[in-house]
Write a structure and sequence with these properties.
about 400 residues, alpha/beta, 9-stranded mixed β-sheet, 17 helices, elongated
């Protein structure tokens, strides 16, 4: 499988390359793909490039400016990359909320450098400037003459550098240089150039199983390792991440389980959510994944009332009930490749059982089919009045764990 990244050089006042901005691409066309969520784009950039051949492989060892959305910052996605390799570029549509401020402050104290993209001054951004090292001004959106007072103000601020982006002519470069800009980027110097690499396609179904494990209160490292071991792509990326420079390895990694234990729960969960974001939302709407997670929790809660020993299986039935739609593959073909128990597989294939009846009750509730709800609730002996609270709790639970949203 081919994966693509674009890079654009950033120059100093002597026109020497000092860094690169890197961009996600999903094909040979050198444009940002339409309809791709910025959080997903950055996740796929990290998975395709950083966890494949390494981000510094395309920056010649120089820093890479990487775009991060508001949700990406809140989820601390930058912390999955070594601080010496990147500059966190805060996208222009990020809002200067308290939550974003705390995320940026925490990342700064971990050694990450921050840049504000397409900067337009507002007093709400003032507190962010204490740990911002680079302001980027789009001189096509805001002409140099208009931003001159801001440039004059901020170029005197210690530790803060200014970058003029979208410089397209010699005249613009010379004027920006005269005004005191430190760095420059734009078509006058070079267009973004495409970098093509190869990657191994991960199994989407296995990614979903691993994501399910990451939602649990306590990680079962043995079970997680057994799933990773069945997908060479995910195993490779896990080992790349472990060896990325974020961690000081005291001894060689000799097994997948050892790598997961070495990461610890917090970093392992972040890594798994990154993989899920990159792979599961590649071509499908978020709603299918969100519905699957709500459905899984709803099924689990019903089973806890009628057959507590089957609650884990009920969760899996709900989680995988729409995997055929997610992957555009017949259910039977998918289940043949998954390490699921027979009772889960038969329920997903429509064989009558308590698990199937639970799933059908959940589907009836989603559809608002009250006749079917009554029939299925009586069949598995659960009070109908309990269902609204269960569904509400399932929805709230999905939002709590929805780190890939």
């Amino acid at each position: 499988m081919k994966v693509f990244t674009a890079r654009q050089a950033i120059f100093n006042r002597r026109q020497h390359t000092v860094a690169y901005e890197v961009f996600f691409r999903d094909g040979i066309e050198n444009v940002f793909p339409k309809g791709v969520d910025p959080t997903v784009a950055t996740s796929r950039l990290i998975v395709n490039q950083h966890l494949n051949v390494g981000i510094t492989a395309i920056t010649n060892g120089k820093r890479a400016l990487v775009n991060f959305s508001q949700q990406g910052l809140i989820d601390r996605i930058p912390s999955l990359m070594p601080p010496n390799d990147i500059v966190i570029e805060v996208l222009e549509d990020v809002e200067p909320t308290d939550e974003v401020y705390e995320a940026c402050r925490e990342l700064f104290h971990k050694g990450y450098r921050m840049a504000l993209d397409d900067f337009l001054y507002h007093k709400d951004w003032e507190r962010f400037l204490n740990f911002t090292r680079l302001l980027k001004f789009d001189i096509q959106n805001t002409p140099l003459e208009e931003i001159a007072p801001l440039v004059e103000k901020f170029k005197k601020r210690k530790g803060l550098k200014l970058l003029a982006e979208k410089v397209e002519t010699q005249e613009e470069f010379m004027l920006a240089k005269k005004m005191g800009f430190d760095f420059f980027q734009g078509y006058f110097f070079c267009k973004p150039e495409m970098i093509e690499n190869k990657d191994i396609e991960a199994q989407h179904a296995m990614t979903l199983i691993i994501y399910h494990e990451a939602l649990k209160p306590f990680l079962n490292y043995t079970k997680l390792a057994s799933y990773f071991e069945q997908d060479v792509s995910l195993s490779y990326k896990l080992l790349r991440f472990t060896n990325s420079g974020l961690f000081v390895l005291k001894e060689p990694i000799e097994s997948i389980k050892q790598a997961l234990v070495y990461l610890g729960e917090e970093q392992a969960r972040k890594f798994i959510c990154l993989i899920a974001t990159a792979h599961l939302r590649k071509n499908k709407p978020v709603e299918i994944i969100r519905m699957s997670i709500i459905r899984a929790r709803f099924c689990e809660q019903i089973a806890k009332h009628v057959a507590p020993g089957a609650s884990d299986s009920a969760f899996m039935v709900g989680l995988f009930s729409m995997i055929d739609a997610l992957l555009d593959t017949p259910m039977a073909s998918l289940l043949a490749k998954l390490p699921l128990s027979e009772d889960i597989k038969t329920a997903l294939l429509g064989e009558k059982s308590l698990l199937l009846n639970t799933l059908e009750l959940v589907k009836a509730y989603e559809a608002g089919s009250w006749w079917a709800i009554t029939k299925k609730a009586e069949l598995i002996n659960i009070p109908q009045d309990d269902l609204p609270d269960m569904h509400r709790n399932a929805t709230l639970w999905s939002e709590t764990y929805e780190t890939i949203s």
